[in-house]
Design goal:
Helices cover 60% and strands 5% of the residues. It is mainly alpha-helical and 459 residues long. The strands form 3 sheets. It has a two-stranded antiparallel sheet with strand order 1-2. Strand 3, helix 8 and strand 4 form a beta-alpha-beta unit.
């Protein structure tokens, strides 16, 4: 096959228009699949020989040729042409050029439709494993920060208003829990990725005696697809992966949002290390949290990839359509973006300085222990709704008087409820407030330490 001849060109009398050739080519982005395309082809060649469809000698020639081509592509020595269309056609052309006509037997019993489905699944299996490893490393950093900041008290927020004091360790472990759910989703997605599609050919299967179970064994697929039409049309696993990635990026983005806010002069809770910040081209005093901002921005990009794939799939008639070529760029971009974001945030979070005194000071503002006083009243037998009203009126009084609750005298407290005792002031102490939250999943030192121990046993 020469560089201008199409493998499907037998029924065509005119050459493909150059603009059409450029428009339809996917080689620029799908050549990253060369490794998976070749290992899939090697497995296919072994099966063809085992079934007597090609000879063992032919299979050996093909396999050695594919191995040489793999080496050439990996080293950047292979030459691709615009007419190759995609990585599958490029590899086939290179193979025929290298081993002669016997190379043309490799495509026996398969189509590019089931071939690309195989390549994507092989590729995504590897990427899912890498993403899981990156996630576990990042979770380890969060655990390390939780141990490091096990005594640091910060203001907890709802509606971005001070709510109740919590441990900074508890905050970091909240993100650990989010990432653990992400790992579970990716693991579940992996099950649906890990299905062998090869052997169904273009859409109907083949009359040749292929042994799909043997190929599945060679490529370590535990499941074989059961419907040829669905097999070549299916990109659910691509959309599902990008959905899982979108949730992970959302979690990373939320962490970044907090780090951006906390690093501002108005909050002053943290300072991000110089190596993970940038300056201004005009304002010499600026130190900008650009890494965190970019992760936040790239999250929208991954969402866009999900919408692109879902929209591309929504009206496709059965079975394979060339539209499906458009799944690769969103998939590749999502993988690259997620891995880069996870990696850079792992480094950034290890280079954050915490201003603990400032955090503690702010944790004591905004009547953050008001709920503790309400619970104090509940313990004394006051119905919660009534206790809520009593404390609410105390807060209103403090606001009118320009006081904090810790400034009040016992006599002032008793104006609102006669049963207050001196021990009510213990409820206003931040440390005591945190210590009291011993409920499973709470922010007490005891509960957080127990959760950390569980995580360490789990890892």
């Amino acid at each position: 096959m020469n560089k201008t001849q199409k493998p499907w060109g037998g029924r065509f009398q005119a050459d493909t228009d150059r603009e059409v050739e450029a428009f339809t080519s996917s080689l620029a982005f799908d050549q990253r699949l060369f490794h998976h395309d070749i290992i899939g082809s090697i497995a296919h060649a072994k099966m063809l020989a085992r079934q007597g469809i090609i000879t063992k000698r032919e299979a050996k020639i093909i396999i050695l040729g594919l191995q040489d081509i793999h080496s050439d592509i990996a080293q950047g020595e292979a030459v691709f042409y615009p007419g190759d269309e995609d990585i599958h056609m490029a590899v086939e052309r290179l193979l025929i050029e290298q081993v002669g006509e016997v190379g043309g037997k490799l495509h026996t019993g398969r189509s590019r439709n089931d071939q690309i489905a195989l390549d994507l699944r092989l590729y995504l299996r590897e990427e899912l494993k890498e993403i899981d490893e990156l996630t576990q490393v990042f979770q380890g950093v969060l655990q390390q920060l939780a141990r490091q900041e096990s005594k640091t008290i910060i203001p907890g927020y709802t509606h971005l208003q001070k709510a109740q004091p919590v441990l900074l360790a508890h905050y970091f472990l909240a993100y650990w829990e989010m990432l653990e759910r992400d790992r579970g989703r990716f693991a579940d997605c992996y099950k649906r990725v890990n299905v062998l599609p090869l052997g169904v050919a273009a859409l109907a299967g083949t009359g040749l005696p292929l042994d799909r179970a043997y190929v599945a064994k060679l490529l370590a697929f535990p499941v074989i697809s059961r419907n040829s039409l669905d097999t070549v049309a299916d990109r659910d696993f691509v959309a599902e992966f990008i959905f899982c990635a979108s949730l992970t990026m959302m979690h990373l983005s939320r962490l970044c949002e907090d780090m951006i806010i906390w690093s501002s002069g108005e909050f002053g809770f943290i300072e991000i290390g110089d190596a993970f910040t940038t300056g201004s081209s005009i304002m010499p005093q600026k130190k900008n949290p650009d890494v965190a901002e970019l992760v936040r921005g790239k999250t929208a990009r991954v969402y866009g990839n999900l919408m692109a794939v879902l929209t591309m799939l929504k009206a496709l008639p059965m079975s394979y359509n060339r539209d499906l070529q458009e799944d690769k760029e969103p998939l590749f971009d999502t993988i690259d973006t997620l891995k880069a974001s996870m990696s850079v945030l792992t480094g950034m979070m290890q280079n954050v300085q915490f201003h603990r005194a400032r955090m503690l000071e702010e944790a004591g503002r905004g009547f953050s222990t008001a709920t503790d006083v309400a619970e104090y009243l509940v313990i004394k037998g006051v119905p919660f709704r009534e206790a809520h009203g009593i404390v609410g009126r105390i807060v209103r009084f403090c606001l009118d008087q320009g006081k904090a609750m810790t400034d009040l005298k016992l006599e002032e407290m008793r104006r609102f409820y006669g049963g207050f005792e001196d021990d009510v002031f213990q409820c206003l102490d931040l440390e005591n407030s945190v210590k009291r939250k011993k409920v499973l999943g709470g922010t007490s030192h005891e509960a957080v330490a127990a959760r950390l121990m569980e995580m360490e046993k789990q890892s």
